[in-house]
Write a structure and sequence with these properties.
The complex is a heterodimer. By secondary structure, chain A is of the alpha/beta class. Chain A folds into two domains: 162 residues, 3-Layer(aba) Sandwich (Peroxisomal Thiolase, Chain A, domain 1); 156 residues, 3-Layer(aba) Sandwich (Peroxisomal Thiolase, Chain A, domain 1), CATH 3.40.47. In chain A, strand 2, helix 1 and strand 3 form a beta-alpha-beta unit. Chain A is globular. Chain B has a domain of 102 residues. In chain B, 82% of the residues lie in helices and 0% in strands. The termini of chain B are far apart. Classes of the chains: A alpha/beta, B mainly alpha. Chains A and B meet through helix 7 of A and helix 1, helix 4 and helix 6 of B.
């Protein structure tokens, strides 16, 4: 299911991060970074609300708009009942659609916002996502002070929030098309190997996108997955080659392997969470696109639809990936 | 691609954990902790004039105290992550599990937060510890008569 959008542009974007991201290689591309993980709040969850609100506030400043000028806020995060988005929306007071598709919500939000804008149902929209390392650890794994050993394939939830302002005003980056993925379950049960869980979903969505639009992988300067990590990345390249005969090895990278210094920082296979794709794309990649160093990208945000309850019931983990094609406007 | 073939593909690109190295590390660190425990017992008997059977209880309390303190000070999780089973299996792991849960949920109140969650990780240890003690107690009674 691929949609081509008419006149949808990203006027600007904002990125706020935590300390680990600031210590990574992309630090220069963020609007704001905090030195601790509480951001002056009392709990991890409230900290995530704060960082998401910050990101929207910075974006409003950048595009010189008031909250009342915004027609729609589309946001999602990893927490139960997407509380970070709900509470941020509560303080922002903008008409709000909350979404959940785990880390794939970055592209899900863009597709929802761009579709409504493309159909002229709204004049503008902010798409925001967030994740918080400690809030995610607490909810999906163990108490944050508990030092459970992790295998090499485990990922590290990125702390941060990213927002984009979509409108039909001609701007440097155009949202060209989007592909809505299917939920894919290849029988992986290992909650510490999300790369393996999500790679087939990414592969199927990339294939679907390319065949719907009759494009070759080389059409894009960069195909960018959200958070497959070191090992998921290799699995995806091989999966696409074996299953569909598509070779993406020349122009492919993964945000999860770009956000941190994988050799120096204790992040195992790399970054995960909606913030992984948002921080890398909205910060680093947009910068390169504005300088015209990169022309077209296919962003494929990948989400493991994991629930501790279902894992305890011995079920496998389903995954989803949505793709959005972004290009430098002519 | 069927699930079986996909699993094979995943296995090719999944790094193997070095089990022998992890086992050795756990054995050495866990053993070292045992030596510290014995040293504490000897100290208590020699200088504290505490009877031998009570000294081991005091030693356990001391280890629990330091594991909890270090957890609260925020660096024990890094140590456990490195030492793995060497620090998790001894009583230090139990104390670490309880303290970290208490710290995590203290913002959610004394009853709904700490009370409801403190045994989140260690509850299984207590339950199956009691069950095992019961079963082995019965076996011992049948075989040895008490």
């Amino acid at each position: 299911m691929t949609i081509k959008f008419n006149n949808v542009y990203i006027e600007d974007a904002s990125v706020v991060t935590g300390p680990y991201e600031k210590n990574g290689p992309l630090a220069n591309y963020f609007d704001k970074s905090y030195n601790d993980l509480y951001f002056g709040q009392k709990t991890w969850e409230q900290a995530e609300v704060k960082i998401l609100t910050d990101s929207v506030d910075i974006l409003l400043n950048k595009v010189n708009r008031q909250k009342k000028d915004i027609d729609l806020l589309v946001a999602g995060d990893l927490l139960n009942q997407i509380v970070a988005s709900n509470y941020a929306a509560s303080s922002l007071g903008i008409p709000f659609l909350g979404l959940y598709s785990a880390c794939a919500v970055t592209c899900q939000g863009l597709i929802v916002g761009a579709s409504m804008l493309s159909n002229k149902e709204i004049n503008n929209c902010i798409c925001a996502v967030s994740s918080h390392n400690m809030a995610a650890e607490k909810q999906f794994r163990n108490p944050t002070e508990y030092g459970a050993p992790k295998p090499k394939t485990a990922s590290f939830t990125a702390t941060g929030a990213g927002s984009v302002y979509l409108s039909s005003k001609v701007s440097p980056i155009k949202v060209e098309s989007g592909t809505i993925g299917k939920v894919v379950d290849m029988g992986t049960k290992d909650a510490f190997h999300m790369g393996a869980v999500m790679a087939p979903a990414a592969g199927d969505t990339i294939y679907q996108h390319l065949s719907d639009l009759k494009r070759e992988p080389g059409y894009y300067d960069l195909i960018l997955t959200g958070d497959l990590g070191t090992y998921g990345k290799k699995i995806l390249v091989q999966y696409l080659k074996t299953e569909y005969g598509i070779d993406i090895s020349k122009n492919y990278d993964d945000c999860g392997t770009m956000l941190y210094d994988l050799n120096e920082q204790p992040v195992w296979a790399g970054a995960s969470g909606p913030a992984s794709s948002a921080l890398v794309t909205y910060g680093y990649i947009f910068n390169k696109m504005k300088k015209k160093e990169i022309g077209r990208i296919l962003l494929v945000a990948t989400g493991a639809l994991m629930s501790q309850t279902m894992i305890n019931q011995k079920l496998t983990i389903p995954a989803i990936a949505h793709a959005v094609s972004l290009e430098v406007a002519e | 691609m069927d699930k079986k073939r996909y699993k094979d593909l995943v296995n090719i690109y999944t790094p193997k954990e070095n089990k022998i190295y992890n086992i050795l590390k756990a054995f050495i660190i866990g053993g070292f902790l045992g030596i510290i425990g014995q040293f504490v017992i000897d100290l208590l008997i020699t200088y504290g004039e505490i009877p031998k059977n009570e000294a081991s209880t005091y030693m356990i309390i001391i280890l629990i105290f330091f594991a909890s303190l270090f957890t609260a000070m925020g660096f024990f999780d890094t140590l456990v992550g490195k030492a793995r089973a060497g620090l998790i299996i001894p009583i230090t792991g139990f104390a670490h599990a309880m303290t970290s849960s208490a710290l995590e949920y203290k913002r959610e109140g004394l009853v709904q937060g700490i009370g409801a969650n403190i045994f989140k990780l260690s509850g299984s240890v207590i339950l199956y510890g009691v069950v095992a003690a019961y079963v082995f107690g019965i076996i011992r009674y049948i075989l040895l008569g008490g």
